[in-house]
């Protein structure tokens, strides 16, 4: 009996010791990790406010510069189209914000696009391409555009490749790619160029990097409204967009009010055939947005003021005072960045 009691006592003692030991190890690990984090954050040269839902655009990307150069040539090359008249730059003019300032774009043989052309600037950071996100990658987006009967009319890669092979591109491609001109290599070069079209160093990014004077008090107020009214719940991340899908007309019936619903208006539904995806679109980036009117996939808003009123009504179910709209516009103006070191 005594022996048994002793055994039980010893068992309890050992268990308690073991338990305390485990707790100690656990707490120590936690403490250690916190220390490491503190060290890491104090080591980072620039202090980026970690609580922000918006991140500055990467300052420097490592890209193969020879491919960027070749991609640049191809991007501006009308011979990529069937009638040698339409290049990517026809609808994505880099001198006017990377789009064309038209409600609909003009493709081969003056065919109009079904939706407004978005900017190519920063498109490399989009989680998917096109308004309905039907292209998973830049390469898939390029393939569709070059071969499309409506956009560049290529029809098949063979035709495009044969044309380029009889030109100076033949030797340019051979220098960079072992197998010379192929569909994949054309896509690779253009996609690399597209990735080079990022626009860091906007005044807002300087503010995010810790320079409190980079934006004015009014612009800061506009940013506060952008957050407090809830724009930021959809327009967030590095691009203030480009990282999720949302219904256009979340709280009020946008398409019912606008009328004349087209197939393109069905948005992501056209990709998934899922009822939940009716009228769902990729939330567009708001980087450089002052330069890329008209707005929305249907190009229906000519000014930022109109666009914000529509957003407030249909996405947030409210009307904003004019003064608040003006301040939000001032904030959006701080999002214009630099391309190759020059303001866009
Ligand atoms: C005829 C005008 C036209 C031409 C030519 C054209 N695009 Fe576009 N581009 C558009 C339109 C319109 C859209 C939107 C289509 C959609 O979402 O369904 C678009 C979408 C894109 C997107 C997606 C951006 C985003 O935010 O989703 C990228 C990237 C792009 N084009 C790059 C290119 C490249 C590269 C070329 C040349 C190979 C090219 N485009 C040729 C009009 C054009
Ligand atoms: C519930 C999500 C959501 C909220 C909240 C929201 N947006 Fe949007 N925003 C979108 C979507 C989706 C689109 C694309 C609509 C379309 O054209 O199909 C868009 C488009 C835009 C555009 C047009 C961009 C372009 O290039 O065409 C602007 C500008 C804009 N939003 C600003 C705002 C502002 C400012 C607020 C706050 C007042 C706001 N948004 C709130 C989802 C949202």
UniProtKB/TrEMBL annotation:
InterPro entries associated with the record: Cyt_c-like_dom (IPR009056), Cyt_c-like_dom_sf (IPR036909), Cytochrome_c_Peroxidase/MauG (IPR051395), Di-haem_cyt_c_peroxidsae (IPR004852), MauG/Cytc_peroxidase (IPR026259)
Transmembrane regions: 12-32
Molecular functions per Gene Ontology: cytochrome-c peroxidase activity; electron transfer activity; heme binding; metal ion binding
UniProt modification remark: Binds 2 heme groups per subunit.
Residues involved in heme c 2 binding: 231, 234-235, 311
Chief location category: periplasm
Assigned GO CC terms: periplasmic space
Compartment(s) where it occurs, according to its Swiss-Prot or TrEMBL record: Periplasm
Classification via PROSITE patterns: CYTC (PS51007)
Binding site residues for heme c 1: 88, 91-92
Needed cofactors: heme
Location of the Cytochrome c domain: 217-336
Keywords: Heme, Iron, Membrane, Metal-binding, Oxidoreductase, Periplasm, Signal, Transmembrane, Transmembrane helix
Cofactor note: Binds 2 heme groups.
Family matches, as Gene3D superfamilies: Cytochrome c-like domain (1.10.760.10)
PANTHER family: CYTOCHROME C PEROXIDASE-RELATED (PTHR30600)
Protein name: Cytochrome B6
Organism: Nostoc minutum NIES-26
